[in-house]
């Protein structure tokens, strides 16, 4: 089953050394091919949603 944004956030928050950088890296690794996910520079990312970006 593919991992989603919230499941990745939940997983990352359980690690004592989890950071925004490691979370962003995991998002980019797992959601790269998802049309609703847009990679940005550094730790930034965008989510395309029916209500807007």
TrEMBL record:
GO MF assignments: actin filament binding; ATP binding; microfilament motor activity
The keyword Coiled coil appears for this protein: no
Keywords, comma-separated and alphabetical: Actin-binding, ATP-binding, Motor protein, Myosin, Nucleotide-binding
Entry superkingdom: Eukaryota
Coiled-coil region: none
Cellular component, GO, one term: myosin complex
Single GO BP term: actin filament organization
Domain Myosin motor: 1-53
Keyword Metal-binding: no
Family as reported in the entry's similarity comment: Belongs to the TRAFAC class myosin-kinesin ATPase superfamily. Myosin family.
Name assigned to this protein: Myosin motor domain-containing protein
UniProt organism field: Nymphaea colorata (pocket water lily)
């Amino acid at each position: 089953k593919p991992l989603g944004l919230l499941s990745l956030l939940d997983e990352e928050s359980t690690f004592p050394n989890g950071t925004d950088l490691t979370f962003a890296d995991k998002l980019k690794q797992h959601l790269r091919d998802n049309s609703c996910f847009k990679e940005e520079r550094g730790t930034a990312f965008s989510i395309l949603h029916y209500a807007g970006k």
